[in-house]
Every structure is written in structure tokens, then in C-alpha cells.
Amino acid sequence: MSRLVTTVHHSPLGPLRLVASAAGLRSLHFRQHRHAPPADPSWTTDAAAFTAVCAQLDAYFAGELQDFDVPLDLAGTPWQRQVWRALADVPYGRTTSYGALAARLGRPTASRAVGLANGRNPLSIVVPCHRVVGADGRLVGYGGGLARKEHLLRLEGALAA
Question: Count of CB atoms within 10 A of residue 5's CB?
Fold first, then answer.
């Protein structure tokens, strides 16, 4: 296993814990996040390793960045990685439903499986799982909490103020 480094970045929505390998960003979670991995004592704290992603996060929260451009190291099952790649294609300022995402992946009856994979997304914000809403447009299911999901969607203009 490669050496992992970590840091905490302070955002308008609270502290974000970032974890990266030599290949790229592996994890970005809010402190209170349903599926955040526990801190590992083998991780090395190295804020300098996250300069680019932290600058992009700051620009995103300032409304100046729509697409992240940092190397990613997504660790998950083949299905999860397929869903996460599809999430990355949901445009800034737009939303989609679990069912629509499942249909786009060629598995129209797999909306629950999409939801489970979406909930395990290790890269909140960067891989925009917050852009997935219920079939009726309601805000549902966000590991960082629905208030944060609403904030992110308002920031992007996907919800009226």
C-alpha cells in the first residue's frame, strides 16, 4: 500500500479532511460524514501536498470554479467507480436523479444500487454526489447532511435562493 498523507482544510461548510496517495486525491469528507473513513495513525500530515486542491476548493466556494482538475485515486468496486465517473459528468448547476443516472449507465432498474454507490463516494464536492436528487426533485441522501447538500446546490445555482 502506498503512503497516505492527510490534512484538514477549513471550508464555509466546516472542516474537510483530505487524504491522498502518490496517485492523487483519495478522500475528501466533512468531519461529520456518514461514510468517512476513520483517521489512520499511519497517515502523515502534509498540508503542502494539498496546495492545488485546497486552492480549487477555495475558488469553488467563492463561486469562481466549476470543474475540479486534480489527480484522483478512486478506490472502490468497479460498479462504484462507474457510478462516480458518471457523477463527474453531471454539470455544475444541474441535478439528476438516481433513476436517470442508472438509466444513463445502462441499468435503468438499478437506482438503489446507484444510490448506494453514490453514498459511498469518497470525494465529496470534487465528485459531485450532491447533484443527485430524488425522482421528484427533493433533496435526499447526502452523507455530509442535507443542509450541506442544499448549500452546495444553492452555491451552484441549481436551487433557487
Answer: 19
Fold category of 5-61 in CATH: Double Stranded RNA Binding Domain (3.30.160)
All CATH 3.30.160 domain ranges in the chain, comma separated = 5-61
Please, what CATH class does the domain formed by 78-155 belong to?
mainly alpha
**123-142 pLDDT per residue, tens:** 999 999 999 998 888 898 88
CATH 1.10.10.10 placement within the chain: 78-155
Would you state the cell numbers that stand for residue 2, as one nine-digit string?
A: 502506498
- Say what the alpha-carbon torsion angle 110, 80, 86, 72 is, to the nearest 10 degrees: 170
Gap between the Cα atoms of 44 and 53, Å rounded: 17
CA angle 111, 13, 153 (to 5 degrees): 45
Q: Where in the sequence numbering do the catalytic residues fall? A: 129
Cα separation of 138 and 155, whole Å? 17
Q: In the chain, helix, strand, coil percent, each to 5?
A: 35, 20, 45
Query: Could you tell me if 25 and 69 are in contact, meaning their C-beta atoms sit under 8 angstroms apart?
Result: no
Q: Which residue has the cell 465528485?
A: 127
User: 43-97 pLDDT, tens per residue?
Assistant: 899 999 999 999 999 999 999 999 999 999 998 999 999 999 999 999 999 999 9
